[in-house]
Write a structure and sequence with these properties.
Rossmann fold, 2 domains, 7-stranded parallel beta sheet, elongated, 5-stranded parallel beta sheet, alpha/beta, single chain, 302 residues
């Protein structure tokens, strides 16, 4: 079986990484382009694909059905909403992810951006770092921190917020955590002074953050995302401009920071990027490849 690694991230696919795969039939494709334009994917050879979203974020049915004889796809991410699992199941394509390698990094980045909102750093930046008391922020100690989704990342965020003296409450689909206070979804939106959303995107989570719940939030509340379930971002931005919400943090595209009015932290998708997380990512991808060529799929998701 041929292993094709499609990734432009040299900090993950390092020379050391490549040395550890010597002896396998591996080809590295670093230049990002549409998969149907990648010549090496078009032959009938059995394939194991390793795909990074920085190479392509579109693994739809229409894209995948143009690639013949795929036996396994290894995603370099924990998230897998960007691949059509129904198609893979129909074609008996095994899909593996790389779980939890960046949980600490993502949680720390999300808390950093929340702290930036609390101190109105986006407004300070947009004002050219002028000394202006109009941008006086708030302290997080003793404030209510709501967490929507107390999974691996959400739990780490809760620990960080708790370390700052915040009162932690949460809503989650999974088992309740006795360390923190469980509240209803509506109560979470109504009473949280900082609300952190840590949910994957799927049909169920896309129904949770409704316009009605957004409008329930307190006037000075802060809203932080490090994942991307669907929500009405335009509504959130509008009520921030109207000073009916304290601020918003999310990961967007490059060079978007100054595109938004008010206390809005719109950073590029760098939350997962630390030296440690990239090293863990690299090691986990290696293990997934070595296992898969032996017919072992420890991180199979379908």
């Amino acid at each position: 079986m041929k292993v094709l690694i499609l990734s432009p991230i040299k900090e993950v696919i390092t020379d050391s990484f490549k040395m550890k795969l010597k002896g396998l039939n591996v080809q590295y494709i670093e230049k990002s382009e549409k998969l149907d334009k990648v010549y090496e994917l078009q032959n009938n050879e059995e394939k194991l694909l390793v795909i990074d979203p920085d190479f392509t974020y579109n693994l739809s049915r229409e894209v995948l059905e143009k690639i013949p004889n795929v036996k396994c796809i290894i995603l370099t991410t924990t998230a897998f909403s960007w691949i059509d699992l129904d198609y893979c199941n129909e074609q008996n394509i095994i899909v593996c992810n790389t779980p939890y390698f960046s949980s600490e990094a993502v949680a720390e980045w999300a808390f950093m951006s929340s702290l930036a909102l609390a101190r109105k750093v986006p407004l300070v930046i947009k004002n050219g770092f002028e000394h202006d008391y109009n941008y006086t922020g708030i302290e997080l100690k003793n404030k209510k921190c709501g967490i929507l989704g107390l999974g691996n990342i959400g739990s780490k965020f809760a620990e960080l917020a708790s370390g700052f003296g915040m009162q932690i409450q949460y809503w989650s689909r999974s088992d309740k955590n006795s360390k923190f206070s469980y509240v209803t979804l509506d109560e979470l939106f109504k009473s949280s002074e900082l609300l952190y959303v840590s949910l994957p995107e799927n049909a169920e989570t896309n129904e949770l953050i409704t316009d009605e719940r957004i409008k329930m939030m307190q006037k000075n509340a802060l809203l932080t995302f490090s994942s991307s379930p669907k929500y009405n971002k335009e509504l959130v931005l509008e009520i921030i401009k109207e000073k009916k919400l304290g601020g918003l943090s999310f990961e967007g595209k490059s060079n978007e920071f100054n595109n938004y009015e008010g206390n809005v932290w719109a950073a590029p998708s760098l939350g997962w990027c630390t030296k440690e997380s990239m090293e863990r990512n690299s090691e986990m991808i290696l293990r997934n490849i070595k296992d898969a060529v032996k017919g072992v799929y420890a991180n199979k998701i379908n």
